[in-house]
């Protein structure tokens, strides 16, 4: 034989009242009615507050994100202008170097042969100041 099953203990009067009230609430909601007890109103009020806090937090996050996006766009635009300026400076310096190299090459020899690929290889001399620009 198996052991006898334990009986569920009888609910306390408060638990029974609570269960009955919940059943009444569910029945009223099923009929499309709004329960009229304080517990239901308290739960609804708490839920409404929680929903409002969540919505407010989401709005704040959206504002913060849009501010960050605008800041990054402005920073990107400034960086693009700087790149353009540096490219112009590099082009100017290359032209100056080419003019100087042509002048030096012309003064050293009478044949005045143009330099072949002046920035693509190692330049004569102890260091190449343009090596980082390649």
Automatic annotation (TrEMBL):
CDD domains: bZIP_CEBP (cd14693). Its main location: nucleus. One of its GO terms (molecular function) is DNA-binding transcription factor activity, RNA polymerase II-specific. It is found in: Nucleus. This is BZIP domain-containing protein. Pfam families: bZIP_2. Residues 69-103 form a coiled coil. Keywords: Coiled coil, DNA-binding, Nucleus, Transcription, Transcription regulation. Residues 14-30 have a biased composition (Low complexity). Belongs to the bZIP family. C/EBP subfamily. Residues 1-66, 104-134 are annotated as: Disordered. It comes from the Eukaryota. One of its GO terms (cellular component) is nucleus. Residues 107-120 have a biased composition (Polar residues). The keyword Ribosomal protein does not apply. GO terms for biological process: DNA-templated transcription. Residues 37-100 form the BZIP domain. The lineage of its organism: Eukaryota, Metazoa, Ecdysozoa, Nematoda, Chromadorea.
């Amino acid at each position: 034989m198996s052991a006898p099953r334990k009986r569920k203990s009888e609910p306390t009067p408060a638990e029974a009242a609570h269960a009955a009230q919940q059943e009444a609430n569910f029945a009223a909601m099923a009929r499309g009615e709004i329960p009229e007890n304080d517990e239901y109103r308290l739960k609804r009020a708490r839920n409404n507050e929680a929903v409002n806090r969540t919505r407010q937090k989401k709005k704040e996050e959206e504002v913060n994100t849009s501010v960050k996006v605008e800041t990054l766009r402005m920073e990107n635009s400034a960086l693009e202008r700087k790149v353009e300026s540096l490219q112009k400076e590099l082009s100017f310096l290359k032209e100056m170097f080419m003019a100087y190299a042509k002048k030096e090459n012309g003064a050293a020899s009478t044949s005045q042969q143009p330099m072949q690929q002046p920035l693509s290889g190692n330049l004569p001399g102890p260091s190449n100041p343009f090596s980082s620009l390649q």
